[in-house]
Amino acid sequence: MATALITLDEERYLRSLLSQPDDRTATKALQEFCKQLRRGAILVDPSRTKASIKLCLYRPSPSLKRWAVNALTKIGASHDISGIMEVWRAHPDDPDILGAVVAAVYALTDEESASNTLEKAGIALEGVSLIAASQYSVTQKKRLVETIIPLEKADSAQLRSGIVLAGTGKAPEHLFDKKYTNAIALGQLNQHDVASVSKYSIWALSELDLGFSALSLPISSLESQPAEVRKWIFRLLFKDKGALRRSLDMITVASRDVDNEVREESAIALRDTYIPDLDKIVTRWCFSEAHAETRSRLVEHMAHQVDQSDLYANAVLEIYRNEPVRSERRTRIEAAAAGTRIYNDLRKIDISQEMGTMFANDNILLGRGSVTIEQNFHNNTIGAVSGSGDIIANTMQSVGAVQNDEARTLLESILAELQSNPKTPEANAVAKAVADVAKKPAKPMLERLVGAMGSLKTATSAAGSIFQNVDGLIDHAESIMNNF
């Protein structure tokens, strides 16, 4: 398997997505990240990225927590077993989380320690947990070889776990049926009555590079399939250049799907694909797409493939010019265009426009006393603070200089949570506490930050506000504080 570096631009982009309060955005980022790791990619700056991923263990979404566990398993996080086990304790009845946690324990510790950890937690190695353990345990894989996961009788949780094992190439052959290879069995599972099993089986076909011809579902049934299945049919097709070349009209079909997530996933699948005449179809789709995240994904595809198309190059440069300076959208375009012919042009545009902004916003009120300045994070307001000088520079430079990776990532995530929610006195107090911790990362400052966040939580509960991630951020802040 080829080894490729995940560039610093891509890591910065990943961390920016993980800091967003929207759990769905962070989940998709981790899904793509895990895909890169499975294909042999390695990180340039693993400590900062690992800290961002660990924060996701404390977020509300079970799916996001599961993908955070998967990511930590891939990059190696043996010191984080306790946090990973807490995910299972919070969701003991979720079989997919059980599988991810058991796999992580066996991947990150030795056989004896893994068995002891699971025994203490009361997790028996059978069914889903046995399948998961066999990914990283020779002993458990030998046990699994003697087991068949019957295609027609196994429950959907066991089937999904078996499909994951097969899709990652770690399953014993004939896992599902003594008569059929795993590849044939995966094709049969495309037609399973449970949509999640069908979806997983199509994902496995894609992971194993078996091509669109391995799909057993007739394309004529596409419209009648659930959205979670449709999106993986499109992803399997768009990854297979030969099949896509013969079915270019399917891109237009995807662009007209009524489900936003189907269109978004289809756009994600196009990132690494280019065939002749694709640029004309995708450009039309991009400029007519109403869903913001789908449009961003299409722009990323265009930026990644600019060396193949002048139409893409011109479109991406124009889109980039019109995005705000230092915005997340510019970061995403830069990450996608890294190594292409336009990357230096993008950086020149950004530097030129930022210099213009810097001089336009020079503090001409210097000497006139106290002024009110709004702090920004990724170009969004996080609250008004009275004072003088460059609040943006002081706060963000201080956060960036914090040496403790987990503390720095926590502060960045808190700012991201604040900037996505209403400005309140309690939120402004948290913003000030963040600035204080950034300037002096010490336990007393963290205690004040936890107190300010507690007040925000109380006010949020009373007002029915939308600060969704405060609980998890408080838990993580307390965990970091105890280690200071």
What would your notes on this structure say?
It is a single chain. This protein is mostly helical. The protein has 26 helices and four strands. The strands form two sheets. Strands 1-2 form a two-stranded parallel ribbon.
Helix and strand arrangement:
Blueprint lengths: L3 E3 L1 H11 L4 H16 L2 E3 L2 H10 L6 H14 L5 H10 L4 H14 L2 H11 L6 H6 L4 H8 L10 H12 L14 H8 L5 H13 L19 H13 L1 H6 L2 H7 L4 H10 L8 H11 L3 H13 L5 H12 L6 H10 L5 H18 L10 E7 L2 E8 L3 H11 L3 H15 L5 H15 L3 H21 L6 H14 L1
Parallel strand pairs: 1-2
Antiparallel strand pairs: 3-4
Helix pairs in contact: 1-3, 1-20, 2-4, 3-4, 3-23, 4-6, 5-6, 6-7, 10-12, 11-12, 12-13, 13-16, 16-18, 17-18, 18-20, 22-24, 23-24, 23-26, 24-25, 25-26
Outline of the structure:
This protein is mostly helical. It contains 26 helices and 4 strands. It has a two-stranded parallel sheet with strand order 1-2.
| Gross geometry | globular
Radius of gyration, in Å, reads: 24 Å
CATH architecture of the domain at 220-338: Alpha Horseshoe
Which strand order do you get reading across the main beta sheet? 1-2
CATH class of the domain at 220-338: Mainly Alpha
Structural class: mainly alpha
